[in-house]
Design brief:
heterodimer; A: mainly beta; 5-stranded antiparallel beta sheet; 11 strands; globular; B: 7-stranded mixed beta sheet
Chain lengths: 111, 116
């Protein structure tokens, strides 16, 4: 069956450290993968999109990698801040322009 | 970035009544809109995809007669929850894609529905 897996346990890190979140998928062949941030009670906010032919994408303190062989994407936040605390969702297209979401990983950055 | 607005942000309705949620793209033409439902601490589950001017395509297990979706214009889609029951209480989120925004899909702020 098709699955997108994100670590359901919260990631708790100290301010200033790098947060690394993982997204694994099975039985999909996405053309691209996206990462979103969701705050409690709010809709998701788009962060980054990485295409299947791209290994890495950066935006300010954010970095995303995409390994289509491992079927895995890693999402990094460097120099993390308490304001980065949120749930981060990965999503991929199922080749029909629909986005399928992982369950998200909650990040807590301690001051 | 592009803006997608949902209204209302939250609504409480009595069991058995119907409630309508609107989703508007404010600064682009949304050729496709998606409706999601999210229960607490769970992921977004796609309910249906609607293209402007045509009938929505519902995901497996979603009752089309219960969740009526209309996408009559390039800037507005509506979701009507008919004969609502307490188990329909959830966070409903729309997203939109369209001309001028590439592959990016923009999400609304979501609508909290509580059925009492």
């Amino acid at each position: 069956s098709q699955k997108i897996e994100q670590n359901s346990e919260a990631l708790n890190i100290q301010e200033g450290k790098t947060a690394t979140l993982t997204c694994n998928y099975t039985n999909y062949s996405p053309a691209y993968l996206q990462w979103y941030r969701q705050d409690p009670g709010r809709g998701p906010v788009f962060l980054l999109l990485i295409r299947e032919n791209e290994k890495e994408k950066r935006k300010e303190r954010l970095k995303v990698t995409f390994d289509t062989t491992l079927k895995q994407s890693l999402f990094h936040i460097t120099a993390s801040q308490p304001a980065d605390s949120a749930t981060y969702l990965c999503a991929l297209d199922d080749s029909s322009y629909k986005l399928i979401f992982g369950s998200g990983t909650r990040l807590l950055v301690r001051p | 970035g592009a803006v997608v607005s949902q209204h209302p942000s939250w609504v409480i309705c009595k069991s058995g009544t119907s409630v309508k949620i609107e989703c508007r793209s404010l600064d682009f033409q949304a050729t496709t809109m998606f409706w999601y439902r999210q229960f607490p601490k769970q992921s977004l589950m796609l309910m249906a995809t609607s293209n402007e001017g045509s009938k929505a395509t519902y995901e497996q297990g979603v009752e089309k007669d219960k969740f009526l979706i209309n996408h009559a214009s390039l800037t507005l889609s509506t979701l009507t929850v008919t004969s609502a029951h307490p188990e329909d209480s959830s966070f409903y989120i729309c997203s939109a894609s369209g001309t001028g925004v590439g592959n990016t899909i923009y999400f609304g702020e979501g609508s909290w529905l509580t059925v009492v």
